[in-house]
Amino acid sequence: MDAAGQLPLRVGFVGAGRMAQAIAQGLIQAGKVEAQHVLASAPTDRNLCHFRALGCQTTHLNKEVLQSCSLVIFATKPHVLPVVLTEVAHVVTAEHILVSVAAGVSLSILEELLPPNTRVLRVSPNLPCVVQEGAMVIARGRHARGSETKLLQNLLEACGWCEEVPEAYVDIHTGLSGSGVAFVCTFSEALAEGAVKMGMPSDLAHRIAAQTLLGTAKMLLHEGRHPAQLRTEVCTPGGTTIYGLHALEQGGLRAATMSAVEAATGRAKELSRK
Amino acid sequence: MDAAGQLPLRVGFVGAGRMAQAIAQGLIQAGKVEAQHVLASAPTDRNLCHFRALGCQTTHLNKEVLQSCSLVIFATKPHVLPVVLTEVAHVVTAEHILVSVAAGVSLSILEEEGAMVIARGRHARGSETKLLQNLLEACGWCEEVPEAYVDIHTGLSGSGVAFVCTFSEALAEGAVKMGMPSDLAHRIAAQTLLGTAKMLLHEGRHPAQLRTEVCTPGGTTIYGLHALEQGGLRAATMSAVEAATGRAKELSRK
After folding, report:
1. Which residues form the Pyrroline-5-carboxylate reductase dimerisation domain (chain B) (predicted)?
2. pLDDT tens per residue across span A103-116
3. Residue A3 belongs to a domain
4. What is the ipTM of this complex?
5. Is B62 annotated to bind ligand?
6. Are A156 and A185 found together in one domain?
7. Fewest C-beta atoms under 10 Å: which of A169, A209, B233, B240?
8. Cα separation of A28 and A14, whole Å?
9. How many domains does chain B have?
10. What is the pTM of this model?
């Protein structure tokens, strides 16, 4: 097995879409792997050009990726993955570490399609991996041990925050963090539009809204404080904040948000069962 | 007038609470001013100890700050400010640049990711506005706006910190309902906020555009978005900004 720092690590990607590109870019920019040691495969050149632009190798043959890389990340669309795994199963060895980022494809399905004892891990990423501030969870298959899990976690930390969880949490992560990106966008837009209603130009309002999100998120993360505690600190008696919070509560913001995570998670579980 | 890079810049603070500490810390950490060239005044030592811990000078005399610093930031509680200004007015000269920190400047300046706006008075010119903007960029994003926008900024960004906290907590609690432990859920929620905000800022994209990119047909996201709409999240959020801004304008008139 190639280990970072000993033999140069060769990382392969089967599927070359946005998530694959985001992870590859993160790994390369953080110096976790050299671009020339990254090989990506896809049916056409439509996405492979982005890999070549990063300095990576490319191919149209999925098999070639398995044959030249020991760590392979499968980033195809979920419905395509079973076909692809069946196609390459015969070149998979005990040395391989195979990683799936496909939503809704369970470890047991992955293991069924691959030779017995294959080391398989499953990652649920989210889109901000493209700016190296993703939120990712890893679930390990039956034959993946602590060392490859740690290896993968170390690599993926190039793209943001990454932690191992029981597989049962993966669908929840999809609902909270994968779909959560869209929920945050909706919230940011609404904050800005409130300001636009009050007379602020749209561009400025959107900029300030996003900056407020960023700064608050950073405080929550770096200080490890409970959001309710931080909220209390901002509330001057009779001040502007408590007036606004009352409106949030009257509008049922919390219930709507919880329902969104619930609905997205429920759909993730549904899709997993298909 | 002291200008950064010529005579050493001396920055004074009247009022030494959390906001003053945050700005001072940002300026010092970014190397915009040396700690020894910062002088803060407050009635008691309760807050001044934090300034001394940074290496700054302290005093109980507001007048002293005006007399030794040309750039003075007033960071008292709003209701105290008129009294303080009256008290020091007789030592203010044409060389002074006086800055008032408006109610509701976002606490996120503590993380050097603040959102600040500056409005200039009649006699403040472009050069001192730029000087101040350059200094405050140590604490985050900072831009000059017409004074009419300051109350809106308070409602959106000052109070907005609390709105974001509420939203983050609700995201996490949705996940807790679905079976995720609380600590993990809170961590992921905040990280999702951070990553999404970074994408919005760095790529300058409209949030509706980014939202569309995350929506696979029939996928998890669109199911969640429908619930958000059914719950009226947007209306609640707009109302919050409106209510906070309205209160800011009310307080300004008192």
Report:
1. 147-251
2. 889 999 999 999 99
3. no
4. 0.91
5. yes
6. no
7. A169
8. 17
9. 2
10. 0.89
